[in-house]
Design a protein that fits this description.
2 domains; Enolase-like, domain 1; eight-stranded mixed sheet
Length: about 375
């Protein structure tokens, strides 16, 4: 089998989150056997597809797609001199996912079987609350809806508004009460039957992060996620020493090399790679193994498109040290419908093992003719 063409499919309709619109980029790898592998990355398709076509396609065309480790290393070397920490690694991630999809299709098995088989019968999930219900205004209603659907864990970011106001440099007593209120109300209504993870999007300085961590301890959140930017992991170690709550770090770290210091300084208690950013399924599996040697669980970041969702389910099915998998009910219940053949919704707070072969999903043909989609192709000609 040989790679004959690489296609990028740019979805220009953005989904707005806390930091702006997200646009998906899908990558399809075509082969001389007719098999096609599907990958994805986000959120800056213009940059990512330029890397795919100009830096990575020359490395891949004509090669055997089954040589996943060798291709990953050759792609990494092709971009490492100019810097691999942003669009370059996101582009590699998308291609790596597509190569694993091809491998599963060639073997006629789900990807998780190629990774070593299933470690569980179903995959526990929590809901990240990009939702029709505002968790700042109606946290109890939102939690009640989730519990009715069997989802007993959720993630909110009630301190972000304050951080935007102050630049993350200070927080007043009144602002602290404002940030604590959604968590307080959920605890008052549901006790400890609803796990609540706290996301901070790296907005805070160290003194404020310490102050907030100490204030939320009384409400026992599931974890504190990305309280600081991820660029100074020594600061995370200092933060960890001031709180009994587990720190979750970091969706924005890339490759096993980026996670190495996090493991060595023992700041994190939960490790959060994003398959579409960290280097693909290949790197996410290696990061999970590294975490396992430190007796740490992983909780993969899963806020992108339907291909990331499927890939995350395969990783979560396989790794022994899974804590919980992120998901967004607005995504799999709405945004993915009409885009892929199998959006894979949760059932009673868990996901079933994903189907195969490969990822077990395909882009629906009508997506390729949508007015908000643009397609570029590099081939052997």
């Amino acid at each position: 089998m040989r790679i004959t063409a690489i296609e990028t499919i740019h979805v220009r309709r953005g989904i707005t989150v806390h930091w702006g619109p997200i646009q998906w980029l899908w990558v399809r790898i075509h082969t001389d056997t007719g098999l096609v592998g599907l990958g994805e990355t986000y959120p800056r398709p213009d940059a990512e597809k330029a890397i795919v076509h100009h830096a990575l396609a020359p490395v891949l065309l004509g090669r055997d797609p089954a040589e996943i480790d060798k291709l990953w290393l050759d792609m990494f070397r092709a971009v490492s001199y100019s810097g691999w920490g942003g669009a370059e690694m996101r582009a590699i991630s998308a291609i790596d996912v597509a190569l694993w999809d091809l491998a599963g299709k060639a073997a006629n098995v789900p990807i998780y079987q190629l990774l070593g088989g299933a470690s569980r019968d179903s995959i526990r999930t929590y809901n990240t609350c990009y939702d029709h219900i505002d968790f700042m205004k109606e946290p109890v209603r939102l939690a009640r809806e989730l519990k009715a659907a069997g989802v007993n864990a959720m993630k909110i970011w009630p301190f972000d508004g304050v951080a935007v106001e102050t630049g993350g440099n200070f927080i007043s007593a009144d602002q602290m009460r404002q940030g604590l209120e959604p968590l307080r109300l959920i605890r008052e209504e549901f006790g400890d039957s609803m796990d609540v993870a706290m996301e901070f999007h790296g907005y805070w300085n160290l003194p404020c992060a310490i102050k907030i961590a100490q204030a939320v301890e009384a409400y026992s959140p599931m974890w504190l996620e990305e309280m600081l930017p991820q660029d100074n992991l020594t600061a995370y170690r200092e933060l960890a020493a001031t709180t009994s709550l587990p720190l979750c770090v970091s969706e924005r770290l890339m490759t096993r090399y980026g996670f190495r210091e996090l493991f060595e300084n023992q700041a994190a208690r939960i490790v959060m790679p994003d398959i579409c950013w960290c280097g693909g399924i290949s790197e996410a599996k290696k990061i999970a193994i590294m975490a396992e040697t430190w007796y740490l669980p992983i909780a993969p970041h899963n806020c992108g498109g339907p291909v990331l969702h499927a890939a995350s389910l395969h990783l979560a099915a396989n790794v022994p040290n899974l804590y919980i998998l992120e998901s967004v009910r607005r995504h799999y219940g709405d945004e993915y419908i009409g885009v892929v053949s199998n959006p894979i919704p949760s059932v009673n707070g868990s996901f079933p093992l994903p189907p195969g072969p490969g990822l077990g999903i395909e882009l629906l043909p009508e997506v390729l003719s949508r007015p908000d989609v643009s397609i570029e192709r590099s081939d052997l000609r």
